[in-house]
Amino acid sequence: MRFHIITLFPEYFDSPLQCGLISKARQKDILDFNLINPRNFALDRHKSVDDKPYGGGPGMVMLMDPLVRALKTLPGKCRKILLTPKGFPLSQRKAAMLSREEDLALVCGRYEGIDARIEELFELEHLSVGDFVLNGGEAAALCLIEAVSRYVPGFMGRQESTGEESFSAGLLEYPHYTRPEEYESLQVPQVLLTGDHARIARWRREKALENTLEYRPELLSEKKLQPEDISYLRNLPRSCPGRNLNIALVHHPVKNKTGQECTTSLTNLDIHDIGRVCATYGLGQYFLCTPLEDQRALADRLISHWIKGAGAEANPDRSRALSGIRVCSSLEEVVRNISQETGVHPVVIATRASGTGNILCRDIRSLLAEKSVLMILGTGYGLSAQVIDKADYVLNPVRLLARYNHLSVRSAASILVDRILGDFA
User: Fold this and answer.
1) For 241-421, which CATH superfamily applies?
2) What is d(CA 195, CA 218) in angstroms, rounded to the nearest whole number?
3) Taking the domain 2-162, which CATH number applies?
4) How many Å apart are CA 402 and CA 51, to the nearest integer?
5) Listed residue (143, 31, 126) closest to 84, CA to CA
6) Do 241-421 and 182-234 have the same topology in CATH?
7) Which of 4, 109, 210, 221, by CA, is between 20 and 30 Å from 200?
8) 0.85 exceeded by the pTM?
9) Alpha-carbon distance 49 to 41, whole Å?
10) What CATH code is assigned to 182-234?
11) Mean pLDDT of 20-28
């Protein structure tokens, strides 16, 4: 396989390409590297490769002409990659795919970037090695070279090693141990000393699952897990940040369709469905908030039927879902109840179906690690301005960019709670 590296600093690669497995692969003609400096294609006497950006601003932009001339020296079927923060994330799967190429060109930008018209002249694939900014594409190119090279036949001493590494199976890798068996009272796990390959394989699988759940849980959402994997993960002891999240479904003050302040009626579906969401995600309490005495009495009768009456015997799961519901007359009463029970004033977060907010779901998850949170959901046509203005934060709508934003409150509750507390969030 041959890498064509287009860079203004070819010397950047001198040491990395002369050591370790890459050096051995070059000696065996498994890998080859062609370093191309656009400066060598500049036509003016100063060998200029950059200029000031149109429209003003700091920094310089790489010139088109030297780079175009450099790219035209590449083989006809060469796959061309531009290392850029806006690119698709480099993954293990992508690295494996790229390893099948005979010629792979890596374009390393510098300064403020490359004249955007280069992308109209050449078919450049965008790749990123992370959500951060580097001085140039050279460091990113080295990451890509190592990731891709490990899949080239003959590069690794034992090719099966590639399949056991982190991300290869969609999971982080299991922990490794070597001699001595004991070091400063720290023991190698006994299962690894048994010689029972089936038990060792299962232990390694379980540790890989544990590591992934703890450090990169989002990877599990993209992995086809086996039933025994799910059973194992489900039984792992985990912290429950959901208990610090409370929900208040507000029926006053809310807006009607003309934007005026009004009071809405309780609905049986909202009580049951949001209650089931709260039970599923292990939330603290679910408050029904209405100033109307007859509505509070109705809510109490409905809830009592399911947690004390015939409904409790007929459907224990529903009884469990509704057992965490409290009925209050106002938001102020809700906040007082939470403050009295937890000893601290909750962080109040309002929701709405339009406009923009000032907090994200992942930020709320972080808050839950040490604070009590009250998320307020509105009925009717949403919370009134006075409720939103008094909140500590406002959450973005479920569909920030959608032109249609009219989910039922129970649907919105389900989506928002999952974004905050989902297993793989």
Assistant:
1) SPOUT methyltransferase, trefoil knot domain (3.40.1280.10)
2) 33
3) 3.40.1280.10
4) 40
5) 126
6) no
7) 221
8) no
9) 9
10) 1.10.1270.20
11) 97
